[in-house]
């Protein structure tokens, strides 16, 4: 069963679509896809911003920028000046974003206490889920600013789950968890008396394990952070609802390889379970069948015959290369067929494999064009 083709240009041109979230496992081209979508949207007249969490900084290089940071930077698009659109790009700085939230939700004195706390400094830089949480937070900030009419999000790579959807709940459970509350109890007025001497025994043991100063840092952090924690939860819930809204479109990015397509299948199932609006699948680095040429097995047999005869070695080599390419295309077609059979109602756009890596605006524009040509009436490649 052939899947419907994803009309990427219609998606980018729809003024009701305000956020596009590119998700998928690592190494499938999410960052390139997000950047190409931003370039094409800007050239179609939209004011677009791309946010990435890719630590490789390839996006900055491809967009012609010396660096990306936590502030959206304008991107020059030669030849698209008359489109009326614009493109900005930024790379998430999770520590800086965390600091900004604290500063926005706490009075100056309490904010200084939190920012200077060693436990906070460690947690804001390395706690599991912080990067994903801050990606959602930055998305919420960009939407609230109203400065751009399209935000393209390159999500953190994940092998087995949509971690950025779980991050707010995970961070909330940690900060509101029983252990943290026990650790913080002595720092709260009256809490130590109410919970009893058992808390003292627990904190005494923990103090011996992690050190008295570390325990004191945790207690001080929780005591100060209590005043702003409600704001974190409220913002996380608001951004989560934003992701479920009709103005958001998720794109699952994959490549025609077994592991990547298994992950893509999981992403689609998870998005459906969370009632997230899935627009379609982008299948990168595909190889389409050639119009002419023998099937793989025939080409391989002919190559062997010529090789055994010792004649026409160039023809034998050419047939062997053709056989290998045909086998690759057949394998991809089989994998693609499994995906579309499992999700027949989800449209797919295919981007042909490139001979060279994407390294500049011109290459990003070509990827965007390939995505646009993969619409209902187009032929990828």
UniProtKB/TrEMBL annotation:
UniProt cross-references to InterPro entries, sorted A to Z: ArsA/GET3_ATPase-like, ATPase_ArsA/GET3, P-loop_NTPase
According to the UniProt entry, the coiled-coil residues are: none
ArsA/GET3 Anion-transporting ATPase-like domain ranges (all copies): 18-290
Please give the superkingdom of this protein's source. Bacteria
GO molecular function ontology, one term from the record = ATP hydrolysis activity
* Pfam families documented for this protein: ArsA_ATPase
Protein name according to UniProt: Anion-transporting ArsA/GET3 family ATPase
**Which species is listed as the source?**
Nocardiopsis composta
Q: What is the lineage of its organism?
A: Bacteria, Bacillati, Actinomycetota, Actinomycetes, Streptosporangiales
């Amino acid at each position: 069963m052939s899947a419907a083709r994803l009309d990427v240009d219609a998606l980018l041109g729809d003024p009701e679509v305000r956020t596009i979230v590119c998700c998928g496992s690592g190494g499938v081209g999410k960052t390139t896809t997000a950047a190409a979508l931003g370039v094409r949207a800007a050239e179609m007249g939209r004011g677009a911003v791309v946010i990435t969490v890719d630590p490789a900084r390839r996006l900055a290089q491809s967009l012609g920028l010396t660096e990306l940071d936590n502030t959206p930077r304008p991107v020059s698009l030669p030849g698209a000046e008359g489109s009326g659109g614009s493109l900005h790009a930024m790379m998430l700085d999770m520590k800086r974003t965390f600091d900004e939230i604290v500063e926005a939700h706490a009075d100056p004195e309490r904010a200084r206490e939190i920012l200077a706390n060693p436990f906070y400094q460690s947690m804001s830089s390395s706690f599991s889920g912080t990067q994903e949480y801050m990606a959602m937070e930055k998305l919420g900030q960009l939407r609230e600013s109203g400065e751009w009419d399209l935000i393209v999000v390159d999500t953190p790579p994940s092998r087995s789950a949509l971690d950025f959807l779980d991050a707010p709940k995970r961070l909330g459970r940690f900060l509101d968890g029983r252990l943290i509350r026990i650790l913080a109890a002595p720092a709260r007025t009256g809490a130590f008396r109410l919970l009893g001497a058992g808390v003292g025994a627990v904190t005494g043991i923990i103090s011996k394990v992690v050190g008295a100063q570390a325990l004191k840092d945790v207690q001080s952090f929780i005591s100060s952070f209590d005043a702003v924690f409600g704001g974190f939860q409220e913002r996380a819930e608001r951004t989560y609802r934003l992701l479920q809204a009709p103005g958001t479109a998720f794109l699952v990015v994959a490549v025609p390889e077994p592991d990547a397509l298994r992950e893509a299948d999981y992403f689609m199932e998870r998005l459906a379970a969370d009632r997230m609006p899935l627009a379609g699948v982008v299948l990168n680095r595909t190889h389409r069948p050639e119009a002419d040429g023998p099937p793989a097995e025939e080409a391989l047999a002919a190559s062997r015959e010529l090789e055994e005869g010792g004649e026409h070695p160039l023809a034998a080599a050419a047939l062997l290369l053709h056989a290998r390419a045909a086998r690759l295309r057949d394998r991809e077609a089989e994998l693609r067929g499994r995906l579309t059979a499992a999700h027949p109602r989800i449209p797919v756009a295919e981007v042909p494999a490139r001979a060279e890596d994407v390294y500049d605006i011109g290459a990003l524009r070509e990827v965007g064009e390939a995505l646009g040509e993969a619409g209902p009436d187009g032929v990828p490649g």
